[in-house]
Structures are given as structure tokens and as C-alpha cells.
Amino acid sequence: MGLDFDCAMDRCVELARTASRAGNYALGSLVLADGAILAETGSSLVGADNDPSAHPEMTAIRRAACARRSRYLTGAYLVTTLEPCPMCTSVAIWAKMAGIVFGATQQDAKNWSTEHPDELFTWRQIEIRARDVVAAGTPALEVHEGIRRDECRALFALNKSPAV
Q1: Is the pTM of this model over 0.85?
Q2: What is the number of other CB atoms lying within 10 angstroms of the CB of residue 86?
């Protein structure tokens, strides 16, 4: 295949750490096309955007579409530290991407939020797995799960609401 998902995930982890230091969710995403990063972002859900749809996956796909000047990202991969929600997975399908690559799972985020309740960093999930959304969509995308999963799960601990 020639794609280095491990290296791309390194960059996503770096983006997630940067987002966390800025007071945001420790999430990072990028769009990889032709072996190069087409677009990338960390989370900006807390404060900056006030846009509930501005998940880092969605933002990376939007930026990649602008860079390509096309709504289609054929041959590109969405790489992200956390399993994309149904909205972000659907956008990857509509963009005709080649696949989705993620580290931590939806269940990992759910487990973390149950064990570490936080009013700001809730890690809420819509309990529909990315692979199930992909199975229901066209075109069929590749789904690569658990890439650097332990490292991606460890990112959750970077988020804590400021002491009140």
C-alpha cells in the first residue's frame, strides 16, 4: 500500500497534545493523500469555534476539500486519534475517501468518561461504530482500527477541567 499510518498517527498524537495544551480536547486528525498530509488539525471544540460540528475530523476533511478544490477526496485517508463519530464517518463516505484510520475506540472514550466524569470534557459518544456506518454507506471505505491505540487512549488523561 505504501502508506505509513503509524507515522501519520504520530502527527495526530502531536496535534492532540497541542490541542490539549490550548485547553481543548486532546484529539488530532489529518487527511493523508498520496503519502502526504493534505490537511491537519487538533480539536477546537472548546471555546474557539463554539461549533458542535467542528470535530477535528470534520475540520480536517473540510480543509482537505478546500486544498483539493473538490468535495471528493478519492484515494485519501482520514487518520484520527479517536474513532470518528457517525457524522464524521459519513462525511468521509460522502467525500469518497479511501478509508479511515483511528487509534482509540468509541468504547475507550466511553469507559474513560465513566471512570473520570468531567463537566467540560465529557467524551460523549453516539453508540454507532465507524465500521457499522461504513458498512451502511457507499462507497465502501477501508477501516483500520487500533493504530497506536494505547498511546491514543493515554491522551484522554491530558484533559481535566480547571479546578473551580
Answers
A1: yes
A2: 17
